Every structure is written in structure tokens, then in C-alpha cells.
Amino acid sequence: MTSKKAIKIFSTAQDLAEAFALELYETVKDTSKRFDIALSGGSTPKLLFDVLAQSYATKMPWKQLHFWWGDERCVPPASDESNYGMTHKHLFSKIEIDESQIHRVKGELSPKEATSDYIQEIKSNLNERQNLPVFDLIILGMGDDGHTASIFPHEMHLLKSDTICELATHPASGQKRVSLTGKVINNADRIYFLISGKSKASRMAEIINNLEGASKLPTNHIQPTQGQLVFFFDKAAASEIENEHD
User: Fold this and answer.
1) Are residues 152 and 218 in contact, defined by beta-carbon separation less than 8 angstroms?
2) SS3 (DSSP) at 129
3) Which fold has domain 5-234?
4) Quick check: 128 and 134 in contact, CB under 8 A?
5) Bridge partners of 165?
6) In this predicted model, what pLDDT tens digit does every residue of 112-166 receive, in sequence order?
7) Would you say residue 4 has pLDDT above 90?
8) Nearest partner of 201 among 240, 235, 234, judged by Cα
9) What residue segments make up the domains of the chain, in order of their start?
10) Alpha-helix runs per DSSP H in the chain
11) Residue 77 carries which DSSP code?
12) CA separation for the pair 65, 75 (Å, rounded)
């Protein structure tokens, strides 16, 4: 792993979500510029969105924030499997935000069309650094198999792709997903992992402790070229990490 990482451990997933919401608020509260965030799906972001909706609905400078997704399933936005749909239910429907600030993957299109459409949306909106788009913040999770975004262990080539987004395939279901590629993720100014639950502990130990086999896990290859990397854990997810961290 890169040495430019920080680790923050909280007692519970709820504590993690509350701490991260505060961190986000402190980061953007005084900004006068647009701030582009790529979101993740999953249970921990769901808790985060609930905290943001409940405690920051009127405090957060929502007009400065633009929302994207690190990956999305190729399903309609109303589907229970849609990352956008989950975010809308838990956050967007409870705050004042203009639709122009929400840049979703159009999962109702064919997978190839959804991918090309999302690439064009990113190109049209984001600044570039070294010919790659720059997100101000990318929020990521990790699956039990070590995947992140929709970069799975059987598709490690997506980490090195020169394309902004690629069409990924879930290894069990065969479901198609649109995912940011590794080079784009690593070009972000900030990469924050939100990871909770005992089921993540062994994989995170491999990665954080540089154990044998970590190189086969996509999450291990998220190493920002210039940005900041922070892991937010609950105690369960961090339970097998050897060293003490603040």
C-alpha cells in the first residue's frame, strides 16, 4: 500500500458515519468553489446519508456539491439495486438540491450506452490533471472479496485501464456494472474508504498489514498519485489489523 494513508477507527458503524459526516462538513463548509464527490453504495454510506439528512440538511453548503458514483449497477434508477436510488431515498429526497448537481449513471440504458454516456458527463464537467478527470473526493467501500467500486479480483485490468469508466461484470451474478477505473480513482484529491463489519476484517488485515495475497485484491491498488488516502473503520472491520492506529 502507499505510505500516504491515514487510519481512523470508531467504535461502531454509526459512530463512523457521524464522524465522517462531520469531516465532510468541515472540509466543504467554507468553500466557494464547486466540490465534486463520487459516492459509494452499501450499508455504511446508507448510514452516512441518514446522518447527513438528519443533522446537516440545512447546514451543509449543498449548492457547492456535485454528486457522482464510483460505480453503478446497470438497473433503472427506481430499482432496489440502484446506488443512485438508495442515495435518493436516504439523502436527496430530504435536502434541497438541484437536479443539475446530481450526475447519475443512466442504468436504464444499455450497459455500453450507460458507460459512454457517463464518460461524456465526466469529461464535460470535471477538470483534468495528467489527462485524467479530478474528483475532489471519492468515497469507496470494499467487498468481502477485496473489490472496490466494481473492480473485482477477476478483472484487475480495470485498475490500469486508460478509459475513464469500464463495463464490469459481477463474478457471481454476471450483472453488468459501470465503474470508474483505477487510474481515475487514484487521480482524486481525496480517497476515503468507509468500511464496517467483521466480514471485512481479514481482507483489511491483509491490505493494511501488507500480508501475502494483498496484491490480488483491487482495494490494495488504490494508491493516490497526489491525493490523500484515509481509511475510516469501525472496530469490527479493524479487529485484525496488527498495529495501533489513531
Assistant:
1) yes
2) strand
3) Rossmann fold (3.40.50)
4) yes
5) 180
6) 999 999 999 999 999 999 999 999 999 999 999 999 999 999 999 999 999 999 9
7) no
8) 240
9) 5-234
10) 13-28, 43-55, 83-90, 111-125, 182-185, 201-208
11) T
12) 25
